[in-house]
Design goal:
The protein is about 10% helix and about 35% strand. It is mainly beta. The protein has a single domain, classed as Sandwich (Jelly Rolls). The protein has a seven-stranded mixed sheet with strand order 2-5-12-7-8-10-9, covered by helices on one side.
Length: about 260
C-alpha cells in the first residue's frame, strides 16, 4: 500500500524512523470542475453516497494506522465531502495538474465540528487537525540541508518513492492565530499556515481564499516549483480523539 510523507516524515536517527511515501494518481475528467476543465473538485455535483471521483485516492499517512473515512453526503441543499477520523490519519489526494502561472489562487469551503482536545500542531505527539488543505511541490533537492537530503534517500530506499521537495498546508488549528505559520515538528520541509480555528469557527461553514504562490514564497523563501499533488487531510492519530469535518468545492483561480 502506498503512503504519504508530509505529516510525520522522519525522526532523528537515534529514534525509530517512520517513513511514509507519497503517491498520486492520473487526473480523470470526472474529478474536474463542471465542463471548463479546471483543476479542483466540485463535491456539489456528485450524488450523495456516490463513490469518490476517479483520480482521488484515500492514502494512509502512517503505515498501520487506521484510515480516516471520507464520504459524499448531503448538507442542506448541496452535497459535500464528510471526513470522520477516530485515532486515524489518511488523506484524500490527487496528482497535481495546477499551472500556478495561470491559477495561483485556491478557493474552498470547509467546516470543522469542534476543536480536537489536546491537539497542538507545534508538538509532534499532538500534531492533529480537523481539517487541512495540502499541497506537495517539486524542487531542486540539491539545495536542501545534508539532513534533509539524507532523509529523502532513506525514504526512497525504504519505500521506493521520493519525498516531496516541500509541502504546504492550510490548517484548522486552535494553537495559533489565523495567519500564523507552524513548521512541522520533525522537518522544515513541511510548513502549515493557520487559516481557521479562532473562537466561533467550530460548527460554521467558512469560505476561504489563498494565493498559493505568495504563501509558498513567504514560508519557503523562494518561488514554488511544480505542484505534484493536492488534497484534504483530517487526522487524529496522535491524540487518539474523534473528529468530523466537511469540505465543500475546491477551485483554482487566476486571482486576485
Amino acid at each position: 500500500m502506498r503512503h504519504l510523507p508530509f505529516k510525520r516524515a522522519w525522526k532523528r536517527t537515534a529514534q525509530p524512523i517512520r517513513i511514509v511515501v507519497y503517491s498520486a494518481l492520473l487526473l480523470s475528467p470526472l474529478a474536474l470542475l463542471a465542463q471548463d476543465e479546471k483543476p479542483g473538485i466540485a463535491f456539489s455535483m456528485i450524488a450523495t453516497g456516490a463513490p469518490l471521483p476517479a483520480g482521488w485516492k484515500n492514502l494512509p499517512v502512517v503505515h498501520g494506522k487506521p484510515m480516516t473515512q471520507y464520504a459524499v453526503v448531503q448538507n442542506g441543499q448541496t452535497t459535500v465531502l464528510q471526513a470522520d477520523a477516530s485515532g486515524s490519519a489518511s488523506a484524500l489526494m490527487h496528482e497535481g495538474n495546477i499551472d500556478l502561472t495561470q491559477t495561483p489562487v485556491v478557493e474552498w469551503r470547509w467546516k470543522a465540528e469542534k476543536p480536537i482536545e489536546g491537539a497542538d500542531n507545534r508538538v509532534g505527539s499532538k500534531e492533529d487537525a480537523p481539517a487541512r488543505l495540502v499541497f506537495t511541490f517539486d524542487g531542486d533537492k540539491t539545495k536542501l540541508s545534508l539532513f534533509d537530503r539524507a532523509s529523502i534517500q532513506v525514504a526512497k530506499r525504504l519505500g521506493g518513492q521520493d519525498l516531496p521537495y516541500a509541502t504546504l498546508m492550510y490548517i484548522w488549528s486552535t494553537t495559533a492565530a489565523p495567519g500564523s505559520v507552524i513548521a512541522n515538528p520533525h522537518t522544515g520541509r513541511v510548513q502549515m499556515i493557520v487559516v481557521s480555528g479562532k473562537p466561533g469557527d467550530a460548527g460554521q461553514w467558512q469560505s476561504l481564499r489563498r494565493n498559493i504562490v505568495q504563501d509558498y514564497e513567504k514560508v519557503f523563501h523562494e518561488p514554488p516549483g511544480r505542484i505534484t499533488g493536492y488534497g484534504l487531510l483530517t487526522d487524529t492519530d496522535n491524540t487518539g480523539a474523534s473528529t468530523r469535518a466537511w469540505y465543500g468545492d475546491i477551485q483554482f483561480l487566476s486571482g486576485p
